[in-house]
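FAQ: What does the model actually see?

It sees only this:
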Amino acid sequence: MSKVKEFFKKKDVEISLKRYGIDALGAMAQGLFCSLLIGTIIDTFGKQFGIGFLMNTVASVAGKDYTVGGVASAMSGPAMATAIGYALKCPPLVLFSLIAVGFASNALGGAGGPLAVLFVAIIAAECGKLISKETKVDILVTPLVTIGVGIGVAALIAPPIGSAAMWTGKLIMWATELQPFLMGILVSVLVGMALTLPISSAAICAALGLTGLAGGAAVAGCCAQMIGFAVISFKENKWGGLVSQGIGTSMLQMGNIVKNPRIWIAPTLTSAITGPIATCLFKLRMNGAPVSSGMGTCGLVGQIGVFTGWTNPSEAALAQGAEAITPGAFDWAGLILISFVLPAVIAPLINTGLKKIGWVKDGDMKLS
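And it is asked to produce this:
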């Protein structure tokens, strides 16, 4: 047993929640961002501003035409798998072999493709690392093992994983439509907290295919965390902190949360308030790419996703019956209030009360 542990250590194979649940999951979200999400944004800009180059077909494969954005979106499986391999510190031959594994996993996983890619890419990557440089014909053996194991495992587990993720997402979306108030609170709080924790809310939303009202609640929760922390910590962090948290990520506060968990109360309670406002009052729906549901105000991706969903619903949203709409003043007001105004007002009010009772003090949210 000790020899096995030594071999795993030599190969940098670390079976842990941090390595797989934080590092790999976070990297997967980045891969998804750099393919599906960017592709969706490019397509939206092309259509909204009539940019011919972005609207024209640049490639045709098996009778299907692809725009610039379409090509980027189609590469989401390989991008996710490669990002996961990078996070797992794979040698080059393993890393490059994951491109094929990601494509197969995403395709076989269907609507739950991202979750299938996560599991399959981890297995293929670790198997590839174990065999890497163990033979004199490494250039043949390592890709064969990585791709063979990856596609074999994908064929076995990707369809059921994809189905499970799809049905879980559908259950959440159905429950949100049925009980928009309660589910608005639950989804908003949980996804918002996931965004601040060192895990990927974007990857979770993508894996579950979260669109519709549930996606809108997720957007609300993420915005409450990001804008909430950015505003209530302005005294300590000034403009740099406002931008880095409000447009970057509230995860920057994780170290301070560990020191004083009570600083998390204001943004979390804010998400519990704005979530049901989004679902019940404004009927805010995220019908863009599901990954946008877990992005909040990060690069304004959440807001771009909502706008994209208005004008050009994603395939995931269309499958749930979404239709393109022309947004009115009420829609825009809802998006702006939920994303920016309400979190910027509610979170400081709650935090002021927490300061009065001594639960939060000046300097508790100072970023290093």
